[in-house]
Amino acid sequence: MSGGGDLGKVAVMFGGSSAEREISLMSGNAVLAALRRAGVDAYSFDPAERPLAALKDDGYARVFIALHGRGGEDGSLQGALDLMGIPYTGSGVLASALAMDKWRSKLLLRAGGIPVPDWVMLAADTDWQAVVDHLGLPLFVKPANEGSSIGVSKVKSVSELAAAYTFAAQYDPLVLAERYLSGGEFTVGVLGAGSQLQALPVIRIVPATEFYDYEAKYFRDDTQYLIPSGLSAQQERDARQVALDTFALLGGRGWGRVDVMLDGEGKVYCLEANMAPGMTDHSLVPMAAKVAGISFEQLVVKLLEMASHG
Asked: What does the alpha-carbon distance between residue 104 and residue 31 come to, in Å, rounded to a whole number?
């Protein structure tokens, strides 16, 4: 690993105007502090307050993307930085856009042979009973293009479906209902690209709430994160392989996180991929990296070293 001073002037981009601004501020401040501790010439940059053209005007050599949600991890920012010729952390335009869109990523993953939970796209005039007949109960309703469990509901009866749809549709016109898998929720951090891609140790997530919602992810102290995950050796290998296959198929690079779930028989399914994961004190990639012997400071510098564009 090179010294932090070799990386040039770095903009840590966080804040923004998405529904995940609050979490992005937490991630960005943590990254900025860690980079400075590592000797990197790093500065905060909030695109909700400054035009992107200032990156060129102010002589930034690299961008660490700590923006979550739309405008940060959906490919739009990545495209702008590509046009400006400024290297940035994480995946490029296509992988970012695909991972953000739960519906289209599911279509691609299923076509690529990666198991995903069954789903149904919803509309205001959907036959709710038909959805329940197909997916069973409970099930999840979620907007296709949000993260951090924003707009997500766990539905336990057919009478709750219409309200869950209306709630999710506030965040995105594309809304899906997804089959509930009962074997537990896990997540796998991924680092690198191509032949250097590696999966970090699997983390089991045990929320004290009804499901792993926004509060459980970022603000509650009673959510349990288990490393080792408690999976069998084969299931651990399967979870890591699904994560690696998912990341590669979507075209990810640099880093990301793939959430997986098990069904009642112990089969691993890909739930979704995140190409700009959280970097807060509750975040999962830094937690797994630490178990793998990578400190937070080492992790953020490593991600900067892999920054690229185009």
From this structure: 30
Q: Are residues 127 and 275 in the same domain?
A: no
Q: What is the spatial distance between Cα 183 and Cα 9, in angstroms, rounded to a whole number? A: 46
Judged by phi (left if over 0) then psi (alpha if -120 to 50, else beta), residue 270 lies in: beta
182, with CB counted inside 10 A (0-12, 13-18, 19+), is exposed
CATH code for the domain of 54:
3.40.50.20
Q: Which of 76, 79, 45 is nearest to 60 (CA)?
A: 45
Residues 293 and 214 in one domain: yes
Domain-located, residue 164: yes
Say if CB 43 and CB 74 are below 8 A apart: no
Residues 6+ apart with CB under 8 A from 57: none
Q: Rounded to an integer, what distance in angstroms lies between the CA atom of residue 174 and that of residue 129?
A: 19
Q: What is the pLDDT of residues 93-123, one digit of tens each?
A: 999 999 999 999 999 999 999 999 999 999 9
Structural domains of the chain, count: 3
Token look-up 């830094």 returns 286
Task: Find the helix packing angle between 21-37 and 296-305, rounded to 10°.
Answer: 90
pLDDT digits (tens, 9 = 90+) for 276-291: 998 976 789 999 999 9
- Whether pTM > 0.85 for this model: the answer is yes
Q: Estimate the crossing angle of helix 93-100 against helix 233-250, to 10 degrees.
A: 120
Active site residues: 20, 148, 218, 257, 259, 272, 274, 278
Q: Distance (Å, rounded) from C-alpha 200 to C-alpha 258?
A: 11
What is the 8-class DSSP label of residue 245?
H
CATH number at residue 156: 3.30.1490.20
Q: Rounded distance, CA 285 to CA 280, Å?
A: 10
- 258 plus 152 within the same structural domain: no
The model's pLDDT over 300-310, given as tens digits with 9 standing for 90+, comes to 999 999 999 97
Spatial distance between the Cα atoms of 24 and 136, rounded to a whole number of angstroms:
35
